[in-house]
Amino acid sequence: MSKFEYKGNSFFLDDKEYTIISGAMHYFRIPRQYWRDRLQKLKECGFNTLETYTCWNLHEPQEGVFDFSGMLDLEAYIDIAAELGLNVILRPGPYICAEWEFGGLPAWLLNYKDMDIRCNDEVFISKVERYYKELLRRVVPRLCTNGGNIIMMQIENEYGSYGNDHEYMQKIADIYIENGVDCQLYTSDGASYSMLSGGTLPQYPCVANFGSRPEENFRVLEDFRPNQPKMCGEYWCGWFDHWYEEHHVRDAKELAGLFKDMIDAGASLNFYMFHGGTNFGFMNGANYYDVYEPTITSYDYNALLSEAGDLTPAYYEVRKMIENLNGEKLPQLTVKNSEKASYGKLTLSERCSVFDALSKISAPVHTAAPKFMEDIGQYYGYTMYSTTLTGPIDKKELKFDAVHDRAVVYLDGKYQGTFERSRRADKIEIGLGKGETARLDILCENMGRVNYGPKIMDRKGIRGVRFDLGYHFGWDMYPLPMTDLSAIQFKAESGETDTASFFRGYLDIEDEPKDTFIRLDGFHKGFVVVNGFNLGRYFNDAGPQKTLYCPAPMLKKGKNEIIVFESDSVQNETIEFTDTPELG
To answer: Pick the catalytic residue: 44, 51, 60, 234?
Structure first.
């Protein structure tokens, strides 16, 4: 049993002054088989604390159904940190931002259309209470007050960037306490008076989040809340990437120098991120200020460890700085980078169009008007909207009231054009003669829900399909969550195509698998599944990311099934496994 607290402007662990040097690593972005490796690298860099969010949307994927297994085994993750002598700062949200789908909130919350999130709404609080009850019974035995290694837990997350409902903030704290949490609680917000005013509670310490100008930002924090420890709750040592952007990088020496400035100022800090990892599957979030901007699959973040867990120049610079600050050498490094493999090129010689796959992997829901995905209980992936047009129809332009987020349009199976939220809207005109009929199919992709700001209630799919001013009714909606592709019937086929299709091939590995990266230069947009595991999205037309990280644990010795879903077109169905990432 330990005691972690603050007195005046210092933290204390068992009555000894304690400076937090923490690194953020999210268990749900790292293959479970690599947890120990990544945590060992944190320890050997000279850090004393691990920080992680928890992801409500993965832990409760369906309302009332919980999952804490595999890559979601939070207890095991915390226990490995304890074995390595690392303390833990836990940030359970319920909202986490994190450039994660819907900020970590489960998409099924959107079914409660009269509910307001992130405030003292009775219905929202009831959902949070149920989740926290399940989460906290696993966490409480691991608090430092119970002999564990969790020293602090955060109340909500950067709440002052969103609102100012202090009754709600107090309610979150009360739920913690009612479920046995008695470690040090705190809040974190951006270093501005309005954010700190909106997101803090007077009885708990608050920390400030920033990536530069520590003297200026700590001055704001000290002025707002004197007589408490200075801490940067998120030292943004890098940044995340959106599609259509350049990859963010930062000079390693500058990064380490700012770290030194914070320590010299008597502050604690948490590197965000120490290791970013990957937005596997469809779990990337998005920003929406003037335009909708989804986050890429890689969450490399220019962190101290690369997406694949390799030691970067920033790792060595920060480690050296910690040695200089301590006045003594750290133990010699035992950790190392993983071996990478170039397995070469693989031709995906089997194919099945999305139209041939529909009846195998989905069942239609008939609606009068096209609805958002959430309305039919589907939350991630794609939805096919299908209808029959009957002539005569004067030639008119196809229009939408809403496209969230990308719609590929087909008429009788032939590609007509694409609508992409905030980016692209092809002009498509359709007309039919008397007695003619045509099938209209619209493949809509959820590219990631907004994770920050006022547009966070981000429903997916299409609404209001019109021909000029007139709405068209009578639709079949095919949910395509893409979680189980085993029923697809592939056939040997090759050549270019502009029809959304699944492609399959098999990679033979003779020895124990190694980490690798997949290039899809002949493809445009889609996702890759390796032995049933969704590695995430590629979008070669948008960049900056040109390779997908494929961790060795997702592969096996012998025959490996590789499935690529391409939503646009393919010029060459050959992919390449390389030992070098390309993130732009």
So the answer is: 234
